[in-house]
Specification:
Elements: H1 7-22, H2 39-47, H3 63-86, H4 95-105, H5 112-121, H6 130-149, H7 157-175, H8 177-186, H9 198-226, H10 236-256, H11 275-290, H12 300-314, H13 323-331, H14 336-371, H15 379-402, H16 411-440, H17 446-475, H18 486-493, H19 525-529
Helix pairs in contact: 3-7, 3-9, 3-10, 4-7, 5-17, 6-7, 6-10, 8-9, 9-14, 9-16, 12-16, 12-17, 14-16, 15-16, 15-18
Length: 546
């Protein structure tokens, strides 16, 4: 028999063993000093950490994610310049070739939900987004370097068609994970199961600030690097080289400047609980839960939000459909410097609009956290703010249209100011729909969800253009004759979505997100297979419908 130990002795040995595990033993060296980790190993260990700090709810977007959004937006915009390089000899193409090129290269957006679902279902070393981004950047870098190094490649239609199509698809896989990374970060820990869209809307608006800043940087660079279209300083061939370099820089940034837990799936699952199997079970249960009186169909609230976004953007509008046509008679006479200033001010206005919404969501979240006032960021309030700001931007445009009757009205001064103001209003008005979609996006399917949202917004824009044209034809007006008569009606149309806004869901569909201040453990295989779940539990669960 082994000698018995007193509890005090046993506990003392246990404490000592725990201390030994927490504090590494110093190793001897020639000079007798204890060996310490180098800053490289410490930095790399921090980068490869798979768990975020669960003591505080994320309210501010980390600068590492923000820098990733900035760089990826610049890379995305630079890659799209290859489309202009590919259409250098557009006038020499046949009508069939022109239609083929545009149908293949500029309609890939509508396959975004399918591509997004592929990104959501595939895991490589438990990572969801980083492998896809790296592969897409490598492909785009190769395409850009080929376009730069091959002389007269733009004269070969078949080659440019294939390269442009590859570039479009690869670029989609670069920008698709952007919103998903932000939502995945924000949903790791929530304030409460009944929090509104203020916090996640604030994170999304902060992400939009970084992305719009990337667009502003690209606009400034392109306007001054390209210069006069007739005599560009840097032509599109050299732009392809710069785009390839941007892809390489993005790869380095994703590998060495972003933390691993931004991309990891923190659940411990086996083949039976893997994402493709869970998705298959969800599809099988959609029909059953659609007719059930007790269960809610998975993703139902998100689909309702997507339908609302379609209605929100499909109405007749002047700022996105007719403003450019009306002002073209004045902008075509702008000097090069004034045209550059007009473009830069438009991008700056979009940045200010996103920043204004981010500040509003920040103060709304602070108010809710301290006083519990939920109405500050409920769907009705934020949609009313978006509609009002959109209508106010239309009113500013209406003011400029009325100035056409005054011979002394200077459009060379008004149009750049209008670009700043109108783009700020449009970006602010876009954020409510984005925030609501982010709050209701199904967990672990964020990429597919946001591509579906993008398709809805894009399709609504097509419908809005057709409806606006038909509406103006019915009034007997055009962009140059009686245009002002349609603008007050356009302002009224902006408030039509408010009829539906009170029915929008106020809280998340998924009530299983980990809540701050409560116990939290990563999901294991047994919990993933168990159908019994606490309605407001803190354990992350699979997105299967029980």
């Amino acid at each position: 028999m082994f000698p018995r130990q007193s509890p005090r002795e046993g506990s003392g040995e246990k404490v000592n063993s725990e201390n030994d595990e927490r504090e590494p033993r110093p190793t001897s060296s020639d000079n007798g000093d204890a060996a310490q980790k180098s800053w490289v190993s410490s930095y790399w260990e921090s980068m490869m950490n798979e768990e975020m700090d669960m003591s505080q709810v994320p309210i501010f977007l980390p600068w590492r994610i923000g820098l990733f959004l900035l760089t990826s937006t610049i890379t995305q915009n630079m890659n799209y310049l290859m489309g202009s390089f590919a259409t250098t000899n557009y006038s020499s193409w046949t009508t069939a070739q022109q239609k083929q090129f545009y149908s293949l290269c500029y309609n890939m957006l509508y396959l975004g939900p399918l591509f997004g679902l592929i990104v959501d279902l595939i895991r490589i070393a438990r990572e969801r987004f980083r492998p896809v981004i790296i592969i897409a950047c490598v492909i785009n870098a190769i395409v850009c370097f080929v376009c730069f190094s091959t002389k007269n490649i733009e004269s070969d239609y078949s080659t440019m068609l294939v390269l442009a199509w590859i570039m479009q698809v690869a670029t989609m896989f670069i920008y698709m994970p952007m919103n998903a990374v932000v939502i995945n970060y924000g949903n790791r820990l929530v304030e409460s199961s009944h929090e509104t869209s203020a916090r996640i809307g604030g994170l999304m608006s902060q992400a939009m600030v970084w992305r719009t800043a990337g667009s502003l940087v690209h606009t400034v660079f392109f306007q001054f690097a390209y210069g006069d279209p007739m005599k560009p300083y840097v032509n599109y061939r050299w732009m392809c080289l710069i785009a390839g370099i941007c892809c390489c820089l993005l790869i380095l940034q994703v590998l060495f400047l972003t933390k691993r837990y931004y991309y990891t799936d923190y659940r411990r699952v086996s083949l039976r609980t893997s994402e493709p199997v869970v998705f298959y079970r969800n599809v099988l249960n959609v029909g059953k839960n659609a007719i059930s009186r007790h269960d809610e169909t998975f993703g139902g609230r998100f689909m309702f939000t997507v339908c609302f976004a379609f209605i929100y953007f499909m109405l007749p509008d002047a700022l996105l459909n007719t403003k450019f046509s009306f002002e073209y008679q004045f902008t075509k006479g702008f000097s090069l410097g004034l045209s550059q200033a007009n473009s830069i001010l438009g991008s700056l206005g979009a940045l200010l609009g996103a920043l204004a919404y981010a500040l509003w969501m920040y103060f709304a979240q602070r108010s809710e956290a301290s006083h519990g006032r939920m109405f500050h960021a409920n769907p009705f309030i934020i949609c009313l703010a978006g509609c009002s700001v959109w209508a106010f931007g239309t009113f500013f445009h209406f003011w400029g249209v009325m100035g056409s009757s005054n011979a002394k009205f200077n459009y060379h001064v008004f149009i750049p100011i209008e670009s700043l103001f109108v783009n700020a209003c449009l970006r602010f008005a876009f954020m409510p729909a984005l925030s609501l979609a982010a709050m209701q996006a199904p967990r672990f399917y964020e990429t597919a969800a946001f591509q579906l949202f993008s398709v809805s917004v894009s399709g609504a824009g097509v419908v809005s253009s057709a409806v606006t044209s038909s509406f103006m034809s019915s009034l007997g007006v055009s962009e140059v004759d009686g245009y002002w008569k349609a603008l007050p009606l356009f302002m009224l149309f902006q408030f039509v979505p408010m009829v539906i806004a009170p029915t929008l869901p106020k809280f998340r569909e998924d009530a299983t997100l980990p809540v701050a201040g409560e116990s939290y453990e990563p999901l294991n295989e047994n919990e993933a297979q168990s159908p019994a779940r606490n309605a407001y539990g803190t354990h992350p669960a699979d997105v299967c419908v029980a």
